[in-house]
Amino acid sequence: MIQVVAVITAKPGQRARLLEAFAANRAAVLAEDGCIEYGATVDAQGIPPSKASFGPDTFVVIEKWASLPALMAHGAAPHMAAFSAQTKEFTESKRIHILEPI
């Protein structure tokens, strides 16, 4: 199994817009062969901000894939290219961490 932590930062004030596009694309990703989990998360409410907080413009996508080939196919999927093109103007940065269990 492959796990991914994708830290996505929107341009200031654009996180809701980016999350809306993410939500619209999510069903297509969940339908991909080998997708086990794919969901967006944000800093928990009620927790005081710290150096580790992501802040109001960032969300984190938690992903689990059955295999590295499944993840690679995800990256090449047409709906992911469309998502990237649609969100490019209001995305500040993406940091993708690809991990495997030990």
Describe the protein in words:
With 102 residues, the protein is α+β, with helices and mostly antiparallel strands. The protein has a single domain, classed as 2-Layer Sandwich (Alpha-Beta Plaits), CATH 3.30.70.100. Helices cover 34% and strands 32% of the residues. It contains three helices and four strands, in the order βαββααβ. The chain has helices at residues 15-30, 68-76, 78-87, and strands at 2-10, 35-41, 58-65, 91-99. Helix 1 packs antiparallel against helix 3 (78-87). The mean pLDDT is 97. Pfam families: ABM. GO terms for molecular function: monooxygenase activity. Keywords: Monooxygenase, Oxidoreductase. This is Antibiotic biosynthesis monooxygenase. Residues 2-99 form the ABM domain.
